[in-house]
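Re: duplicated header lines in exported structure tokens

Our pipeline writes sequence and tokens for each protein into one text file. With two proteins the header for the second block appears twice in some exports. Here is an export where it did not happen, for reference. First protein block:
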Amino acid sequence: MTNNFVVCTTRTIGGVGTVVCPSAAAAAAFNALPVASRPAGFTAAALCTVATATAGCNAADLTASEALNNPFLIRTSTRVRDFKLLANTNTRVESTYFQDDFKVNKNLQINLGVRFDFQQANGNEGSYLKLNNVWDNMQPRIGFIYDPWSDGKTKISANYALYVETPLPLDVNVRAGSNNTQTDKQFNVNLLNAPLNATVATGFGTRNLGAAATPIDAGLKPQSVHEFTVGFEREIKTGMTFGVRGIYRSQRDVIEDGSFDDGNTYFLFNPGDPLPPGDGGPTGNTEYKACNNPAIGCFGHARRYYRAIEFTLNRRFANNVSFNASYVYSSLIGNYEGLFRNDNGQADPNITSLFDLVSLLKNTYGRLPNDRPHQLKFNGSYTTPWKMVLSGNFYAQSGIPFNQLIPHLVYGNNEGFGVTRGTAIIPNQGANSAGVESAVGKNRSPLTFNLDLGAYYPIKISESKQLRFTADWFNVTNAQRAVTLDNTFSINSGVAGVAPIANPFWGTGQIFQFPSSLRLGAKFSF
């Protein structure tokens, strides 16, 4: 249940405290209050509206200053909700995979394969979505491994693969795939707590949401990703290998929901894949219609590009020492993060709000939330002559891009980008910038690093019994930098005509590294 309010204010008119409201309905709601329930000093006669030039009443519009600094809330209605979720859905997947490895000679092996994943999603009423096209579901894989010097110490490899998302999460079946899976009845009533004698408030009516299946666009293709990798690995000394690998991934097709009419009705489609009449149905598919309608415009492709080069140095356990070390330099850009949205915290895979409206896509192409240019990892262990095992782990990584999230006119808070994604500059919030100091003036959260140390000593009691004492020291340096920042730049004021309100905590830390801690333990195995 949610109460809905109109923001009024108070003014002194003719020496009398007066409630001034932006509408006659709000004024009437105040007048309907019993005198005993009104604030002291206010009577029915001491109320006027900005919509009428009542004698002695300033008819000027409610100012932003009054709305923010001297608000007087009038409850106009109460929203009540009857939500039911009766889902009996399922998705079936049939997968086929063919693979063969060809040994061209002793130095060269070629790997060939192809995979097909066909899926059928069912709602409460039965079949909803079928992705059974052979060509769209064909996922080729090709690669090779080459030993240039025939000494068994060097490997050059390259691979290409296409991956299809399968199965589509059941959330799509539940929220989009049935006529009666989800019923969400919402009413605005005129009395608090919605007693039986309450009536539906004027101007709101009744809404019944989620009670119809979302239409499927003609020629819908499964969601898929291209991946290319190429690598080199060499044993530089006995038991130690050095490697370098390049990775490139790009989104091919994406399944999302969209709308032509500001969110009143939706459809499932592939953003950026216009199909003319014929392949796209009698009148062309959704993207084709949008691109040819000046009032809407093209949605455009859902794009996600990952590029990385990785260096590794590994030593297998020998002479009491082993370690694995890696460094990755990477880039992650696009306008589509994936099945989960960090921007607004939405967990609705394949039906997020991102492509609902063309206007939601402004400034969304840029550095994606998991873009970390530099990542360094080291894990090692050493066994002492007296059998104590010492270990250490060190991780360092760049921060994540910072954004200026603003409200969207239709969708509300944190749905728009004030500047290009990932380019907002972190402000200096003074004392509130704790843990963020190193990132002030930059466009990503602080670089973070973490050192963990561990040790254990085994006591062998018999062939099958052992007692082990352990000690682990986490975050040895006690680094407590911010891991995530508040990206919300402004929020809706909730008052008609009053601009969004700046968030005073924009750019401050929200989640921080855990402080240094020590854990002692004992383990008995038998």
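Second protein block, exported in the same file:
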Amino acid sequence: MNWKRFKGFLLIVVIILPLKLLPNQNLKLEKKYEEWIKEEVIYIITPIEKEVFYKLETDRDRDLFMDEFWRQRDPTPGTPRNEFKEEHYRRIEYTNKTFGRGTPIKGWRTDRGRFYIKLGNPAYVEKYMDSDIYPVEIWYYSGSPKFMRTPFFRLLFFQRHGAGEFELYNPIADGPASLVVYIEQKMRDVDETLDPDERALILIEREVSPYFADATVSARPGDRNTSPLESQMIIGEAETIPHKKVDDSYAYEFLEHKAVVEVSYSVNYMGNQTRVSIIQDQSGFFFVNYILVPETLSVDFFKDKYFTHLKTSVRVTDGEGKTIFQGGRNIPIELRKEELKIIEKNSFQILDSFPLIPGNYTFNLLMENMVTKEFTSVEKKISVPVGNDLQMSSLILARKINRDLPPSEERTAFQVGNLKIYPSVDNTFLKNDRLFLFFQIYGLSRNLKEKGTLDFSFYKEDQYFLTIHKKLNEYNSDRDFLEEIPLEKFKPGVYSLKVSLREQGGEEVLSQREELSVLTKPIPGAWVVAQTNPSTNDPYYSYILGVQFLNKGDIQNAHKELAKAHERKPEDMNYALSYARVLLTLKNFPRVREILIPFVETKKENFGLFFSLGKASQEISEFKEAISYYQEALKLKGSITLILNAIGECYLQLGEIEQALEAFEKSLETDPSQESIRRKIEDIKKSTNIGNRFSLSGKNLTIFTH
């Protein structure tokens, strides 16, 4: 390879663009905007986004643009978290902490910092600390066919003349000679007529490593014939990956319509009406059923379509604040003009349900309008019956029911068998309505069922109005009770309804109360969006309930349900991973490997899979396998001290002291507060007489991902 012809080659690219007035990039900005554009997002912002940002004239517009900038990159739009933004700032923090040491500039400004922020963790890193060459790091990445010409590529960084920061190696401008220490002294036995780069390449291949020699020639692993020019083009493609992953045309749209862009969520809270009821299904599962009626429904308009995108997030916590259940829905809505007119005259209702294990909880519901940035929230105390004691559910009042729901593979909220209830969210009724009252009684004894009675007593403004007496044995169910009450005798006003369960002698055993209003003016209808769940025969329920038991710490019931879910659907990795969590707790490590290993070849990007397999393999002394699984986990999540320490322990068990030290030192570098690991490193060095890990005999040390 003759580097002279490339070093004397000047590549000129002329791009003809439409003439337009460029923004004033010397505009004086407040410090936070200056730092954002010139430091925080400098490597990932596209030229178009940068142009638009400098054209914005107010801080309000800049704040809104910055919000939109991150939203465009959010991998899970609609969720409270923006994982891309979190990862980006984590990378900046890491580069400043790691690559800025020993140099007068911040880590994010270094070449390594620039590529780490742009590309994230390398698949792995090689470090060369040899007396024949200056310090070198080689970072290996997987390329994307969508953005690059190669499926794999590598970047070489070196300390020029052995000091200062690590610079990016340019295969055209630098060449192998720039990596060799005192090349003329070391190459006296090599043909002096050869190019210095060719002589350096011979030395590197002979004295250091042929793999390292390949890396000085080609950015494409396994292909030494790649020319320096093509290698430099691969590096250029890698640099622009963050730009290629985003469609920045939104920026011009923002600039055009910024006057009508909504402000942030914090000032767009809207009220709501909510009803939450616990109902036991025919299967025996208890469901939390809820109706949410937002105060407003804002929509956007485009090409004769009205649309919005709602996101609901539910969280259930126990008395200790421990999360027992967490879930959510994305609800895209598209309306025609005539449908929008109907909604304007009626209430908009979201109905949903989910199974929940017995206990006392706090229910939190958040609904976000992703188009207009409005939100509303609910918090309620709820209780799912525990045990077989005699209990009565809350009362559900409805203006409409369907007694003959057709068989379906799906179930919706407020459904019990073939009965569908349409609750009144605010318990308002018209004088000529029929009130449908539904409730459940759990733990009824045979004697109470045969001889007990129910009283339905109404009070108007604290004055007794009416009582309806019914015998329990008049109902077809021992648990589900539905009563239909005509309201033609009810004058307009506010009423209190008390339902009492009485023994044969008339003594009250249980009771529940509910308020209702009877009106004469028309009541708006409802536009209902009802979310569905699978049939209760689906293993989904064993999985959901098993995870809830696991979160609650009830391992026995968690094992029962998750084993059932996995048995019925062994191909589902989520079911298998949750089951594996229980098995790890029960120390059934062989079973963990048995159920998870089949996923290794098909599920390459699941951290939990590789961590669980690493843990199980380590516990049964399969240390080499454990290390390989742990390293796969590190590729996905970066430096995690728990895993690095586990790798170190595995290497110790294998007697590979140098690799153990490397893992422990990397862990300590990630979290210097680990005094136990610091002492372990010192003890290992004392007992083995190993000093600095870079003075080891091996010239090529594999360093775990950053």
